[in-house]
Amino acid sequence: MSAWTTVQYPTSRIYEAECTTDGLDCTAASGSMRSIGDVGAWTKAHCQETGHTRFLRIFSDHAIVQCEGHPLSPRSAARTLQQ
Ligand SMILES: [Zn+2]
Questions:
Q1: How far apart are CA 61 and CA 28, in angstroms?
Q2: Residue 43 phi/psi, 5° resolution?
Q3: What's the pTM?
Q4: Cα(43)–Cα(68) distance, rounded to whole angstroms?
Q5: How far, in Å, from the CA of 17 to the mean position of ligand 1?
Q6: How many angstroms does the Cα of residue 72 sit away from the middle of ligand 1?
Q7: Which helix or strand (DSSP H or E) is residue 79 part of?
Q8: CA of 42 to the centre of ligand 1 (A)
Q9: How far is the CA of 12 from the centre of ligand 1 (A)?
Q10: Residue 60 Cα to ligand 1 middle (Å)
Q11: pLDDT tens per residue across span 18-55
């Protein structure tokens, strides 16, 4: 069995929200944002504008995986060291 490591980029998190208010056909979405605070502000503004109150919040990040025989590329290694 080969070994591997996975490193998360702490600064690469992406936050999004989609309106999922029951019974409505609203497709509003925040798009990619850099902080949970930005998503909170978007959901608050959408609620104030429309009265919609239910949202799917989505959190994503990037991971760097290093496994046997496939070392980090110089670019990935440099970005990891910057964290
Ligand atoms: Zn909505």
A1: 22
A2: -65, -40
A3: 0.70
A4: 44
A5: 10
A6: 42
A7: helix 74-81
A8: 11
A9: 27
A10: 22
A11: 999 988 889 999 999 999 999 999 999 999 999 999 99
Beta bridge pairs of residue 65: 6
Q: How many residues does the chain have?
A: 83
DSSP assignment of 12-77, as one string?
G-EEEEEE--TT-----B---BS-HHHHHHHHHHHHHHH----EEEEEE--EEEEETTBPPPHHHH
- From ligand 1's centre to the CA of 44, what distance in Å? 11
Which helix (H) or strand (E) segment is 5 a member of?
strand 4-8
* Cα distance from N-terminal residue to C-terminal residue, the chain: 29
Q: Which has the closest alpha carbon to 67: 58, 76, 56? A: 76
Tokens 């496939």 found at: 70
